User: What shape does this take?
Amino acid sequence: MRQNPKVSTLLSLLCLSLLIGCGAPSENAASSDPSAANGQGDASSDGSPVVNVYSSRHYDVDDEVYESFTRETGIKVNLIESDSAALLERIKREGDQSPADVFVTVDAGRLYQAQQEGIFDPVTSEILTERIPANLRHPEGLWFGLTKRARVIMIAKDRVESGAITRYEDLANPKWQGKVLIRSSSNIYNQSLMGSIIAAAEEKGAEAWCRGLVANMARPPQGGDRDQIRAVAAGEGDIAVANTYYLAAMMVGSPEDQAAAAKVQPIFPNQDNRGAHVNISGAGVVKGAPNRANAIRFLEHLTSEQAQEKFAGANKEYPVVAGVALAPELEGFGEFREDDLNASVFGASNQQALMLMDRCGWR
Amino acid sequence: MVGARRRLASWVRLAPSGLITLFVASPVLVIAASLGADTGGLWAHLASTVLPEYLRNTALLATGVAVTTVIIGVGTAWLVTLCRFPGRSLLRWALLLPLAIPTYLNAYAYTDLLQFSGPVQTWLRTTFDWSRGDYWFPQIHSVSGAILVLALGLYPYVYLAARTAFLEQSVCALEVGRTLGLGPWHNFFRVALPLARPSIIAGLTLVLMETLAEFGAVQYFGVNTFATGIYRIHNQPFPHALTAAAQLAACLLVLVALLIGIESLARRSARFHNTSTRYRDLPSWQLRGPRATLATALCALPVIWGFGIPVLLFMTRNLQRGDTLARAKFLEFGRNSLVLAAVASVLAVVLAILLAISERLHSTPLHRFLTRLSGIGYAIPGSVIAIGILVPLYWADHRLSAMIERLFGFSPGLLLGGSLLAIIYGYQTRFLAVSLNFVQAGLTRIKPSLDGAARTLGATPVRMIRSVHLPMLRGSLTAAGLLVFVDVIKELPATLILCPPNFQTLAMRVYNLAKDERLAEASTGALAIIVIGLLPVLLLSRMLDHSRPGAEGSRPAGAAERKQAPTHESRLRPDRRRCVARL
Assistant: This one.
């Protein structure tokens, strides 16, 4: 208290400098702020072209792909990354003033939700329709799949004979009691898988399957997909359900992960009937996008061969465009038959799937 | 006429609290307003399937964390304040260190370490040639695991509150206890603890609110609580999901309101101020032999578990396989985090001063209610409050944009949303409770008679605040600011949803990697968050060490411990005298 005046002057100076310091970046943000872009010009206030991307995909390689887009077209990518539900709500609240041009998200259920909320505008682009197979895009061009991943069964090589389990339905077989590892039903990948089971077996059959699966669990659901794979390798259970890219990433990960991945083998289920469950990440052009032409160019760029190779390859996903090289680890998994159920179907049954899983006690 | 004027005056008096509360609590009100809305049968489904489990786990978690934090926080605070044992001067500040680690990082670290496929259990299995089922090992992914991890991260709030209270207790009370034949244990339970109770409860309230809102760690452990249930339904891609989530959050609000009610009852029944102005060195019991070793161990364990082990783990992981992102990017993320934290903490302190002082000046029930209301956002999971923030924010933004268009004939687009202002606003809603708690606690320690003296000497309320309250509150204000600072550095959901384009903070970086289950890469960002969080924590503990009434701030820590009894009173008195003289 002795040096009170000095201290308080110092403090207030400090606060002032901080506020000014904060003012600077916030002004920068404002000048690059897409909201300053005027209507149809497809350009920010300082004249350089931009595209405003709202994304819930956060892989480092995405940034590289966006940078290559900027290099090629001179269009700057303004990126907001957040959770899907949050971004969707933000776009809705921003309303007709929203600066959003492109909405990128992971999982078909979320694309379907965005479509239902009416935030997408249909796009007709010959490039996009030609490159992306019909079951991986919306029929009227509201959204387009960009990468795919298969959700498959993974077994412990030394404890489960290959051929002992071949279908999703087998996961509910009492033979595997205490052996199955799968993450929480809160996870959207599991909800979409459940949706595909509902499509195949009707609600009644799906509920029986779900109860059987819960009874077979080696432990209450916990952790992510990698944790399930690690647990199989460590012997906590014999069978895991996980997305392919997690195993592929572990094969080139830390020494422990590489050792764990070596003990595990992926089984693509239901090869003799509907095929393995496939999910997508995708994007669409937002209704009222201030930079619509740039947004379409952006989507087209993401389906170019180099972009697909990176966008899918670095994250060990499967590219949606045919003929694009696979990551070597995926090459090793071999070819497989995909369930070609349109993503809208299990997107639409998400609520039904979640409530069903709640009833069966899948935590 | 006179009546009307008086009514007007009472409205004016209410204006600061009312406006701030409206500003800060409107997202919470948006959530509460969802209560009546239709959810298309979703609510009935939740109530019949998952709600009982949410309730049970939330209650278990809250009780467990409360008991554990009080035992750790109060126990260690008492030991380092009143006993002497080896390592005490180091532990005294080190006990605050776990504050720098976000609980979700602690959860990652302990999962990594203790899960079935982790190094500890793997080592056990290979050494003793065991396999699954041959041995028992505590399951970290459980309610008790979550309690442990949360308690290790949150006990510093209780420690801080208890230590401040113990330091401020007049030695006379303790000596009277001793004279009456109370031993150290009885003195603790019958004199010191009751005197410190209001402070401890205030600290505990923060802990409980944070526990109720805790999402990251609990979710990772697969424990279903209200907060994880809210997040789960909130993220569902179907209609009514957001409404149902808001309704769950509103239920949580009711719990919190109950909690706050209990807290204010506890505060009311124990409204006392130190009556003695005689401060001398607190008696310190010199511990020897096994007792001293035990004390050192007891105080060291929370630091080792809550700070040492996670930091070591992140450092190892970082060396193995750190983040591949360029250093320059990290500097940028760090700067973003710092700027946000600095601005938000200063604003949070200013708002807290306005609220707390206005409550003290006009102590009406309405003022008290408004003050409580403005802190309630601390107990709501960040993801929900963030959605709540979008509503008033964009409402105001659209109004502003329309007004400018009407006045100047052009549309400026959205000005607030997507600017840093939006995030700073979000932080006030989230963290005002923290600064408010400390400022209020500081104010209650200023004797009301001092206000009387100031007013009698002719000071206007504003002058009294400037010349008496603010100087005496300096410690509390700094503590409040620093705690908000640390909280903002660790904050994630509100930052995620409100951030401007091309803007990332350290917490966002760690989240992006952790979400993709790349924990080894996330370790670099985690360490950076810890380092930044460490600075204010160290400042805080340094300040606390010198906060004993009469102790000189400028004295080195070692010197403060030496004999200084004779000078205390003389040093304290001029301070007081100066406060009054400045009037």
